[in-house]
Design goal:
The protein is α/β, with parallel strands linked by helices and about 280 residues long. The protein contains nine helices and ten strands. The longest helix is centred in the C-terminal third of the chain and has 16 residues.
């Protein structure tokens, strides 16, 4: 790993989390947050986005994270993905204690072990679809496998769009490109922040079915922030936040059940513990 200190190299290669006194995290857990807090600002203007959050995300599961605006949903998955460092607590990603990683090692880990999909697609306008998909692979210094790229494009349904620019695509097609880009490096977990928020119902359903396939067919984990109970019904598990706390959890449920639980003013019961 060129450019990474030897200590960081050991951290990235080892499945042992240094913060657990030598204990190895269960291999089926791709991300674990324990006692995680995140404070933005200082003094009277300080805001607790997360306040002592404990949550686990298992491999081969689809988790939806829900809650009202300002509940900490996006901050939670940003901390889990190593995009934001928590103020307190510990985050493990694929068995690695992120608190023990330098910025260089953290960047390397993000490029090789996770995928991240944004609501706004975040495609590079000047690049073609092919170039956008290959961008993280190139940045990570990984080998570009044309066969893998072509197979992925066919599966996601964008193989006839590879030479086009993002502006020539529909919103649903752009989000499919973003998902293909996130999957190109074979990540163990895919984090999605409101991936259907900017899409119409037809394109949203198509993207959700694709994310479901990523779990069922590829044995990856998907963690998705959403405000939509219908989108959340595609998940195996729904985690609900309020004021920076995990306040409820549901096993896979109908949209009506999810909406009803989400509307409760104060919920403390936890159902459907992660497997």
């Amino acid at each position: 790993m060129r450019g990474i200190r030897r200590r960081d190299e050991r951290i990235l290669k080892s499945p042992v989390s240094s913060g657990l006194k030598g204990a190895v995290l269960p291999s089926r857990e791709v991300a674990v947050l324990r006692g995680v807090t995140k404070v933005y600002g200082r003094g009277r203007s300080a805001t607790n986005a997360l306040d002592g959050v404990d949550v686990r995300f298992a491999a081969r599961t689809f988790t939806a994270v829900m809650g009202p605006s300002g509940s900490g949903k996006s901050t939670l998955i940003q901390c889990a993905a190593g995009l934001v460092r928590p103020t307190g607590g510990t985050v493990w990603l694929d068995g690695v204690d992120l608190g023990g990683c330098s910025e260089t090692a953290l960047t390397k880990l993000r490029r090789t072990r996770i995928g991240y999909v944004f609501q706004a697609y975040n495609l590079v306008p000047a690049l073609t679809v092919r170039e956008n998909i290959l961008l993280p692979v190139r940045l990570a210094g990984l080998r570009r496998d044309r066969g893998q790229l072509n197979a992925l494009a066919r599966r996601i349904g964008i193989d006839d769009r590879m030479d086009r620019k993002p502006a020539e695509l529909s919103g649903g097609e752009q989000q499919r490109v973003a998902i293909a880009r996130a999957l190109m490096a074979h990540p163990g977990v895919l984090f999605c922040d409101e991936p259907t928020g900017a899409l119409d119902s037809t394109n949203a359903r198509s993207v959700l079915e694709l994310l479901r396939q990523v779990v069922d067919d590829d044995a990856r984990a998907v963690v998705m922030v959403t405000h939509d109970p219908l989108a959340a019904s595609y998940a195996d598990r729904v985690v609900m936040l309020r004021d920076g706390h995990v306040v409820d959890e549901l096993a896979q449920s109908a949209p009506e059940t999810i909406a009803e639980r989400l509307a409760r003013p104060s919920v403390t019961t936890q159902v459907g513990a992660p497997v």
